[in-house]
Amino acid sequence: MSEATQPEMGTILRKIPAVDELLATPRIQDLLAVHPRWAILEAVREVLAERRRQILRGEVPPEAAERLLSPAALSAAVADVAGEKAGPSLVPVINATGVVLHTNLGRAPLAPAALRAIEAAARGYVNLEFDLAAGRRGSRQAHVEALLCALTEAEAALVVNNNAAAVLLAINTIADGKEIVVSRGQLVEIGDSFRIPDVMVRAGGRLREVGTTNRTHLHDYAEAIGPETALILRVHRSNFQILGFTADVETAALVALAKRRGLLVMEDLGSGALLDLSLLGLRREPLASDAIRAGVDLVTFSGDKLLGGPQAGMLVGRRDLLECARRNPLARTVRIDKLSLAALEATLRLYREPERALLEIPILRMLRLTSDAIGARALALAGALRSAVPDVAITIEDETSEVGGGALPLQAIPTRVLALRPGRERATDVEARLRRGSPPVLVRIKEDRILLDLRTVAAPEEAALLQALRAALAPGTGGSA
Ligand SMILES: *Cc1c(COP(=O)(O)O)cnc(C)c1O
Questions:
Q1: What is the pTM of this model?
Q2: Coil, helix or strand for 469?
Q3: Given the CA of residue 191, which atom of ligand 1 is nearest to it?
Q4: How confident is the model over 122-146, as pLDDT tens digits?
Q5: Where do the structural domains in the chain lie, given as residue ranges?
Q6: Which of 195, 196, 202, when mutated, tests ligand 1's pocket best, judged by the most ligand atoms within 8 Å of its CB?
Q7: Which of 58, 324, 320 lies closest to 171 in space, CA to CA?
Q8: CB 406 less than 6 A from any atom of ligand 1
């Protein structure tokens, strides 16, 4: 292909229709029946501007100009862009990665009871901060505090917007301007470069780091305590592990030290679980009740990690401390909204009957699925796919799923995946089509193959997944969703 000369470029540029001209063409007029006018107008402007840039960059050889600027090509581009603009940006996706708590994909899908609670709370008015028995103002915390106390054995509880906010509020309430003794091995970054130590410093705490990355001893804590110290903090290493030559101080020993020196102890559990994950064949994560029983004054954990509920942050522990946290002006800036609160209450209620929690909370169900059960579903999907895409090599293979979401980092859960090796193109090309399809499908790539782990795909999503796979693996054969 030849590059356009200066005069040729001018000629090509003059072939770009005016906005009104393109808008008036029958194909674009037909689009008005499908998409709102604003979206089509914006799309027309953007498509024409993009064509102009392509020409000016010398990307349009004279012989291609006619086709690229034809009404058919322009209106097809406008239809795509207008469709994207007119549709929602936040859409359901199929998570075939096998990462159960995928932070970028919204962490925990909610239980049916939580969904119903959200709908009911969103549709009309609710007794959010109204005490119906007494007929006066109430607290939004009242809907979950007793549940959290029952489930964690704490004497009081406070719920905020997320766990990072819980840490912020806790530290600001009990250690503003004071020193916090914390192990170097527990200063965690929680993703997207957010570091919990930075949150604690912004909350007014001064960090006194003790020990080394791999080893911290009780005497390290003891020696660091001074007149300015208010708090000993323990942060659960939920998203990484230090292996090899390591030493850590147990919560109970920290509590004993703190009592002797008149200090408070706080534990940020990160994920925090409300039931023993060894029931699911996983490593036992510390429960909030373990920390409370050990005598920790304040415990914080997330709502949408292993708890399997909505985004929320829990503070449980001593009543007097939580009373101060409640009155802290920051509490208002991090308060939980009514929809999350509704979902949280419904989720916590399921935990009152652990066997119901195991059955109805999606992430607990997913974590419990055996590789045999997942393999059987993969096999059925493979059978349905094979005839549609004959030149794709399809196998079922042993792999591992991940808990994700900064929980149980080294816990590899055995699974069985559907592995696809496209015959004529790279796996990454197919991956991109899946990702940009409708619904978008997120997969893993390994050794130029696409891996699909059905652990994180709900049974009702399988039909849509099959459609999306057909469309992405055999484009142009009418398999579009
Ligand atoms: C995930 C995590 C947080 C933050 O919790 P969010 O609910 O995501 O705000 C804080 N601390 C630890 C140790 C974590 O693992």
A1: 0.92
A2: helix
A3: 1
A4: 999 999 999 999 999 999 999 999 9
A5: 6-86, 94-103+367-477, 112-360
A6: 196
A7: 324
A8: yes
